[in-house]
Write a structure and sequence with these properties.
alpha+beta, globular, single chain, 148 residues, Thrombin, subunit H
Length: 148
């Protein structure tokens, strides 16, 4: 007996979603708690983040990050990523944007090939997700094709 599968009723194909969650804390504080951050740009070498308005960092500050990439099929995570604040700029809405560079000399975990591979996997997934979003966006949302 073969079971018939219900007919697909979607007009558009379901696409995988990837969401990057970041939390940070200063590496100096022994008992400091992790606080949320909004990731704006991610590569295997670093990440740019916007923090809550009550938080701030200075150039050269060493931070510890929890990085988690959540996907439909599971999640990739890195618990103790060490990074250093390399630049601070303002976003279009006036918030500070912190450029964090991963410090691959900070500890044994950061020196491991596993850490580098995990960061590379995350970067690849986020790139593919962004390309897919760009490819499926409506033409009216593309600035170069928008007519006033």
């Amino acid at each position: 007996m073969s079971e018939k599968k219900p007919q697909e009723r979607r007009k558009l194909r379901r696409l995988p979603a990837a969401e990057l969650n970041l939390e940070w804390r200063l590496r100096k504080g022994l008992f400091s708690r992790f606080r949320p951050a909004e990731g704006r740009d991610f590569t295997r070498n670093g990440v740019s983040v916007v923090l809550d308005s009550s938080d701030s960092l200075n150039m050269g500050d060493a931070v510890e990050l929890k990085v988690e990439l959540i996907m439909e099929a599971g999640a990739l995570s890195l618990e103790k990523a060490a990074a250093v604040v390399r630049n601070i700029r303002e976003t279009a809405d006036g918030q500070p944007l912190y450029g964090l560079e991963f410090d691959f000399t900070a500890n044994r975990s950061m020196k491991s090939d596993h850490t580098r591979a995990q960061l590379g996997r995350m970067e690849g997934i986020l790139k593919r997700s962004e390309k897919l979003q760009l490819r499926i966006q409506p033409l009216k949302d593309i600035d170069a094709l928008r007519r006033n």
